[in-house]
């Protein structure tokens, strides 16, 4: 299965290992212990059983779920303000977010299906139907998607990129990448709306990867960065994590 995984996501790392490295990094460079870090995660509730939270998260505040559907956060700014109101002045926020995709032993990327025992069943909040129909989108489906429910909003986000999805060699993988980009933009908006904050904000965005007949969750990092509360400057260190499992202090020259 690892050969299949790295065929599609060559830089994938175990999700719990990446999160553990971030927790260690925050303590080593910012001297913030895990019990003062609030973990805010944007994952679909039905995906939670397949995401492996490391044991170190038991010491953290949270995790607080951000009403994520396929990773996209539907939490309101006001709700997020209430969540962060109890954060200690010398604490930190760690946002962990992204969509999930499933691989099989044979290699093809399947729809967003979730394991229940040895059987597959469709998740109620997934994008496969949207992806399957996006090439033939018509006015009727557009009108159906123009709703305020979560599935309709996800469909609208993807419909903006229907040509890109339709022309991709693997439409579901392409749609997952697009959904990450949209999720990343929304997380940035939410964080900006929380300002000014007195605490450091750390962001860790990724594609979560679940493999058939495997209990270990993997990830491919797409965004990692730090928001400094002193000057409001965001330091994007994504190119320097480069999925090598290695984090550099932002004050070091690149």
Shape descriptor reads globular
Task: Report the sheet with the most strands, covering strand number, pairing sense and barrel closure.
Answer: 8 strands, mixed
Succession of helices and strands: HEHEEEEHEEEEHHHHHEEEH
Which structural class matches the secondary elements?
Answer: alpha/beta
Work out the radius of gyration: 18 Å
- Level of helix content? 25-40%
Through-space gap between termini? 35 Å
How many H/I helical runs?
9
* Number of DSSP strand runs: 12
Low-confidence stretches: 110-125, 138-147, 241-254
**Mean pLDDT metric:** 76
Hey, roughly how much beta strand do the residues contain? Answer: 15-25%
Explain what you see.
The protein is an alpha/beta fold and 254 residues long. Helices cover 34% and strands 24% of the residues. The protein contains nine helices and twelve strands. It has helices spanning 2-8, 15-30, 77-84, 128-133, 139-145, 150-159, 162-166, 171-194, 238-241, and strands at residues 13-14, 37-42, 61-65, 68-69, 72-73, 92-97, 100-103, 113-116, 119-122, 200-211, 217-227, 234-236. Strands 1, 2, 3, 6, 7, 10, 11 and 12 form an eight-stranded mixed β-sheet that branches. Strands 4-5 form a two-stranded antiparallel sheet. It has a two-stranded antiparallel ribbon with strand order 8-9. Strand 11 and strand 12 (234-236) form a beta hairpin. The longest helix is centred in the C-terminal third of the chain and has 24 residues, at 171-194. The two termini are 35 Å apart. 33% of the residues are buried. The model is unreliable at 110-125, 138-147 and 241-254 (pLDDT under 50).
């Amino acid at each position: 299965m690892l050969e299949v995984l790295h065929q599609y996501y060559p830089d994938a790392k175990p999700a719990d290992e990446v999160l553990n490295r971030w927790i260690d990094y925050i303590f080593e460079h910012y001297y913030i212990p895990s019990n003062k870090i609030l973990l805010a995660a944007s994952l679909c509730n039905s995906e939670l059983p397949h995401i492996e939270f490391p044991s170190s998260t038991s010491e953290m505040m949270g995790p607080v779920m951000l009403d994520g559907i396929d990773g996209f956060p539907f939490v309101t700014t006001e709700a997020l303000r209430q969540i962060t109101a109890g954060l200690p002045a010398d604490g930190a926020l760690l946002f962990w977010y992204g969509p999930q995709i499933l691989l099989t032993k044979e290699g093809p990327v399947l729809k967003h299906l979730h394991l229940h025992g040895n059987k597959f069943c469709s998740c109620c909040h997934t994008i496969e139907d949207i992806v399957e129909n996006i090439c033939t989108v018509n006015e009727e489906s557009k009108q159906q998607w123009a709703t305020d429910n979560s599935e309709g909003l996800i469909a609208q986000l993807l419909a903006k990129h229907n040509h890109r999805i339709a022309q991709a060699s693997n439409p579901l993988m392409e749609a997952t990448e697009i959904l990450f980009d949209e999720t990343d933009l929304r997380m940035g908006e939410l964080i900006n709306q929380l300002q000014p904050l007195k605490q450091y904000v750390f962001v860790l965005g990724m594609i979560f990867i679940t493999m058939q007949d495997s209990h270990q969750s993997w990830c491919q990092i797409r965004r990692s960065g730090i928001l400094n509360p002193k000057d409001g400057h965001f330091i994007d260190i994504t190119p320097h994590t480069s999925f090598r499992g290695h984090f550099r202090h932002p004050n070091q020259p690149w």
